[in-house]
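Before going further, learn to read the protein records used in this course. The integers have meaning only within a learned vocabulary of local backbone shapes. The record below shows the convention in full.
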Amino acid sequence: MAKIRAVTIERQYCSGGSDIGKLTAQALGVKCYDHELVDLAAERIGISKDEIKRYEEAVINPLRAPLSLRTGIDRKLDLSEKIFAAEAELIQEIVKKESCVIVGRCAGYILKNVVPILNVFIYTDHENRVNHAMDVHNIPYEEVENRLKKYDRKRADFYNRNTTRNWSSMQTYDICLNSGRLGYDGCARIITDHVRNSG
């Protein structure tokens, strides 16, 4: 991957960021790490994937959280710190062994002083996101709006809570790409070309 060691991708929910990450990794001949990082982090700190999911839901909507996660703010902060620390450790270990593409998990922030990276944000217009939510995730139309807001808030909260940056600010990233205008292949091509020309 030339001079750039890792491509890190943050993305709006239903903007195609995960698919673009996979296409980019395929074009560069490297691995793409996405949801696998959550599984690996859960294993490392000795909790189940289900508990991480319940915790993340608790952060989004505390009133709907299981009682075990509502017993005090210390419990939430403790688990949050453990999850983020485990993911950060894994991400740094991975990039020291191999070039890769990493989707989400604040990877751009975690790696900023570790290896050369290209930090990317993927977004698109509302109509494209609505169509993606219904066509790909089979979300009923009447639920789409709430789901988009919920998961964007989840990603922003996770990022803003664990970094000194703003998830939705373009100054946070090296490149911001509109997947609706450029297409998934077009976004992957722009990223790939930049990486290949970086060395």
Summary: Residues 47 and 182 are 40 Å apart (CA to CA). The beta strands are 6-11, 31-33, 100-103, 117-123, 175-178. The chain has one domain: 6-196. DSSP finds eight helices and five strands in the chain.
